[in-house]
Design goal:
Blueprint: E1 6-7, E2 9-11, H1 36-46, E3 49-50, H2 56-75, E4 82-89, E5 95-105, E6 112-119, H3 122-128, E7 133-138, H4 142-156, E8 158-160, H5 165-184, E9 191-195, E10 199-206, E11 209-216, H6 218-225
Parallel strand pairs: 1-3, 4-7
Antiparallel strand pairs: 2-8, 4-5, 5-6, 9-10, 10-11
Helix pairs in contact: 1-5, 2-4, 2-6
């Protein structure tokens, strides 16, 4: 916990154009139509970071998901009995989020197939371990921080002031998204929040339980297939 307000990031390129998100695929809300950005700002202020009402939180969200795909593309395994998972935990080691990539041999062509999934539910990892060897990686490692730093620079035109802030950034993205999904939950309805090109997150209510889900959108799926994504 930091007592003093600090500058989290600095711009390193010309400002990006407004995101201008348009709902597709039937999603009933876009990221911009929700309070994810304001939740991020409030949560960041709580742990000592300061943000104005600008688009930097949005760029960090983009960077988090793009770097998740880029990292998994780098470490993915070409074995059908193996899967690779990049796991986010809190400081106590409790599961919060994972990106998962699996290889599937395509018998009908020379192409290789990769499936990329994301989850807020640790049981998805445990169930996968019943059928495959799961190679686990953590967001807190220096290897991921290196990827996150590069993607944030390339994709979001931002640079972290210190590498120690990167893990906090990952926590803020997932905490803020889940917080807003929790608020949006409605009985008898699935609520979708879409960040076009990156993800569609959802929440539904089953009895007394809220079910949270998230699936990658097209841009992330392309990154998974691209072995040279980090060289561009």
């Amino acid at each position: 916990m930091m007592n003093n307000k600090i500058k989290f990031l600095r711009a390193v390129k010309a400002g990006m154009q407004a995101l201008g998100m348009i709902p597709v695929n039937g999603a009933n809300k876009t990221y911009e139509e929700t309070e994810v950005r304001s939740a991020f700002i409030v949560n960041a202020n709580t742990i000592g970071y300061t943000f104005g009402d600008d688009d930097r939180p949005d760029r960090i969200v983009m960077s988090f998901f793009a770097s998740t795909a880029a990292y998994l593309s780098k470490v993915k395994q070409s074995k059908e009995d193996e899967a690779t998972a990049l796991i986010l935990t809190d400081l106590a080691g409790n599961f919060k989020f994972a990106g998962i990539v699996e290889y599937h041999n395509n018998d009908e062509s020379d192409a290789d197939n990769w499936s990329f999934t994301m989850s807020f539910n640790e049981d998805d990892i445990k169930n996968l371990e019943k059928t495959k060897i799961v190679k686990k990686h953590l967001y807190s490692t220096d290897m991921f921080k290196s990827v996150f730093d590069k993607v944030t620079y390339d994709v979001a035109a931002l640079e972290f002031q210190h590498e120690s802030y990167m893990f906090d950034a990952c926590q803020l993205v997932i905490d803020s998204l889940l917080q807003v999904l929790d608020r949006e939950a409605k009985v008898g309805e699935t609520v979708d929040i879409e960040f076009p090109g990156y993800f569609v997150a959802s929440v539904s209510v089953d009895g007394d339980e809220k079910i949270f889900g998230i699936v990658p959108d097209g841009h992330l799926k392309e990154i998974i297939k691209d072995d040279t994504a980090l060289e561009k």
